[in-house]
Amino acid sequence: MTEERWTAVDEYIEHLLQPPDPMLEAALRDSEALPNIAVSPAQGQLLHLLALTIGARRILEIGTLGGYSAIWLGRALPEGGHLLSLEISEQHAQVARGNIARAGLDAKVEVRVGPALDTLAALRAGDTEPFDLVFIDADKPNNPAYFTAAIELAHVGSLIIVDNVVRHGTILETEGGDPNAVGSRKVIEMMGADRRVRPAVLQTVGVKGWDGIGFALVVEG
Ligand code: SAH
Ligand code: DHB
Ligand code: MG
């Protein structure tokens, strides 16, 4: 009953706040063969709003899937803005590129295929202009490494967002447990311990069940 209510409320809010959106709907339809783990419409809208709030011009996403969150974030970019999204699966990247092109975002949004740790290392080794917003949403055991890389690739004022940091509460049961939960809890610990960021973590409910989103604003270089 509770989960049904969460879903019903999420759908009601979506109905009030989001007019029918053929591009996002088509992106979800074309992602049906992929895992059903994209952010929810409400979460996508929050990502979009946050990117607008900080005036993000350069966004880094870790974990593309079918490009659903990339479309929400890409739509917040101004003319000349850029979103780089990292994805390990060639198949997911193909689907995402199709969805991104149909949404008219192919000039702004680039999907780069490969293990994100490798791509991040290359970005750090290269002369990469810092990102204003980093959205971490790939394999959870690597969350600590992604968070470290995100700070290195950011600047004072950048916002780092980490998806799935609560995972139905499993982050409390990490002893010998689920490596996803360990990765998610570790990144919260890092947020709390790193003087370079101001953190906030919020639990969430809705169509994706019970989870949470972590935020870290970079305040020191
Ligand atoms: N941000 C997407 C959902 C991403 S799901 C959205 O909300 O629409 C997580 C994605 O991370 C999957 O597509 C998976 O293939 C990818 N992934 C998993 N391990 C990865 C790795 N090591 N490097 C890059 N991408 C990875
Ligand atoms: C999983 C990953 C996600 O990014 C998500 O939003 C939900 C679930 C998962 O791997 O289980
Ligand atoms: Mg996620």
Describe the protein in words:
The structure is a single chain. The N and C termini lie far apart (47 Å). This protein has helices at residues 2-17, 22-29, 41-53, 68-74, 90-102, 116-125, 143-152, 179-193, and strands at 58-62, 82-87, 109-113, 131-136, 154-163, 197-204, 211-218. It contains eight helices and seven strands, in the order αααβαβαβαβαβαββ. α5 (90-102) links the parallel β2 and β3 (109-113). The chain is of the alpha/beta class and 221 residues long. α2 (22-29) runs antiparallel to α5, α3 (41-53) runs parallel beside α4 (68-74) and α6 (116-125) runs parallel beside α7 (143-152). Strands 3-2-1-4-5-7-6 form a seven-stranded mixed β-sheet, sandwiched between helices. The mean pLDDT is 97. Bound molecules: S-adenosyl-L-homocysteine, 3,4-dihydroxybenzoic acid (DHB) and magnesium ion. 3,4-dihydroxybenzoic acid (DHB) binds next to loops.
User: Which structural class matches the secondary elements?
Assistant: alpha/beta
What compounds sit in this structure? Answer: S-adenosyl-L-homocysteine, 3,4-dihydroxybenzoic acid, magnesium ion
The dominant shape is: globular
Calculate the terminal CA-CA distance, rounded to whole Å: 47 Å
What string gives the helices and strands in order?
HHHEHEHEHEHEHEE
Overall mean pLDDT: 97
Number of strands: 7
Number of helices: 8
Major beta sheet, strand line-up: 3-2-1-4-5-7-6
Secondary structure topology:
Layout: H1 2-17, H2 22-29, H3 41-53, E1 58-62, H4 68-74, E2 82-87, H5 90-102, E3 109-113, H6 116-125, E4 131-136, H7 143-152, E5 154-163, H8 179-193, E6 197-204, E7 211-218
Helix pairs in contact: 2-5, 3-4, 6-7
The structure holds S-adenosyl-L-homocysteine, 3,4-dihydroxybenzoic acid (DHB) and magnesium ion.
